[in-house]
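Hi there,

I know you've been waiting on this one. I reran it after we fixed the sequence typo, so this is the corrected version. Both the input and the resulting structure follow.
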Amino acid sequence: MKKLTALFLLLYSTATYAQQQLIRISTAHTNLVYTTNQQGRLIQKYLGEKLQPENADTLNKSSQEAYVTAGMESLLEPAIRIVHNDGNPSLELKYVSHQVSKKDNNITATDIVLKDPVYPVNVILHFESYYNEDVIKAWSEIKHSEKQAVRLTDYSSSMLHFNADKYYLTQFHGDWASEVKMEEQPLTAGMKILDSKLGTRANMYQSPMFLLGLNNPIAENTGGVLAGTLAWTGNFRFAFEVDQLNALHINAGINPYASDYLLQPNEVFTTPAFIFTWSANGKGQASRNLHHWAVNYGILDGHSPRLTLLNNWEATGFDFNEKRLSELFGGAAKLGVDMFLLDDGWFANKYPRNGDNAGLGDWEPNKDKLPQGLGYLVKEAEKQGVKFGIWLEPEMVNPKSELYAKHPEWILKLPNRSENYFRNQLVLDLTNPAVQDFVYGIVDKTLSENPGIAYIKWDCNRMLTNTYSPYLKEKQSHLFIDYVRSFYKVMDRVRSKYPHLPIMLCSGGGGRTDYGAMKYFTEFWPSDNTDGLERIFIQYGYSHFFPSITMSAHITNWGKQSLKFRTDVAMMGKLGYDIKVDAFTDKELQFSHDAVATYNRLRDIIWYGDLYRVISPYEEDRAVFQYVSADKQKAVVFNYMMNVRRKEIFSNVKLEGLDPAKQYTVKEINLFPGTTSSLKLNQTYSGDYLMKVGLNLVPRAVSLTSNILEITAQ
């Protein structure tokens, strides 16, 4: 009887697979198509621009398994590897079913269920397609019902396959104060890996995002480009494998380095989302797709106004008191910004926070500096017409602190080894629920006791090294994953009670910039490097994946450029100041006050408009960026001359994204008091003229000068 039953199931299974499935995941301009083969495995049939007629994409001869498993016949890097209770290190996944549901008029969810025919292991491949934004989110769920835990050693969020003559990869890498440097290279036979093993500050060296060009080097406005990023605030891995037939296979997900995961029976392992967009018209369109998706879905309160601010760090460092801070409130009011942000150094008493070597973890206002507490500062700021914000680094601890002495078991550090410090600090063991309560309690206590606090700068200045969790005990290989999940648990609690409080994501500069965290944060700190010239490159790099509203851009004394140049650069992001306002001349103060007013008038175009990177700083000794409103009625152009050579010749700047039939006026704005524009723009131009002939924005090439143009349809 058992043999008959098995035979029936085999015949039924074969008949089911013979009914070839066709699964099409679509956006406005892109199709991702899956089908099943005769063995019942899921095959990626097509990924690219929509074809006419629509079913033309099914003619593609691709036979590549969609989510390659380890231990079977494939020779490729697997998307998933599992070791069963009996020691068998193989997995076969066959199609079971799929479901398509529309979440609304824009978002469609597609879930594809796969199952091993021998072992009780299920994998669900999830997709959300955002039709208008041309963006797809992909992630997986892994579950089993074996008698004991199985070992997961690979667990990609997504696997994609391409066939082209050539492949070009752009990666974004760097270091502190030198983030997101762009480098393009052709992919050749074999494996190329972009990854991080730094844990908390995962993208300090390598950013979790990439551009892939097919057939030709990646261009701004032409060619097929895939832009991909992982929504995960921890170790990531992108693996690009070009096989012996010149096909490319991409695995994207959590880095499995030192992270074997013991998955308990019926526990669901959910991978983070791989977010990608395909553009047939270059990386510029790919960026605009991601910008619109981020504002609508990827960041907290994407359509809510952000606060301009004045930070005290460059003016005072750790050395301040109530009187000095009150004076700085006045500077914020004179600038016309919304808020004053108090940075590091305001807390700890037994071990006062007078430097970065003490006090971290002891979150009580320092009585010598702030005898009347934070509440007094909130009220004093409000008296002068500005809101008050505060800096926190709640995940970290100095050994020289009361917290360290009281709870040594709360700290990530190796037993039987000397402690390893970075910025004189260690990391709290956030996998421990008691530590999660403590970190949440810091935020809740600070806000509930000082209800006027309007903003938090959440910092994280240390990566993971010499790491061991007393709480996890024998499950140390869970640490990198559980830390991130625990961070999200804390942020879920924070957002449950304080759903709309603006919070900046900071990590010693740009060490945390990802869409896993950005659903909890309103903006991020791109880099501690605020030199105006350097920031052009940094903001250019981030602009490939993040909209301007997310990038905090502060005017400081870093760099040798004029105040106007530094201001013009900062106005491309979320404007702020970190500078001694009381050291300004009258003209500098007037210029800065007027710049804030101008920014507030134009910010919706900069935050929500379409970005066109007209001229790259990597290609010329200048850079030009243009933001265009959705109705094409308004545009803002930022023109920067960098370190130009003697008698260097520059061509006209041909604008983009305008309506060719409209007539536009062009006016230079944000001029320094007492100066006039050197650009001869006193006439009306058609959009067609501005895009095909362009404007001469370099009447005289002078290094480190800049212009902002306001373009208005008549």
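Quick highlight: The two ends are 83 Å apart (CA to CA).

Best,
R. S.
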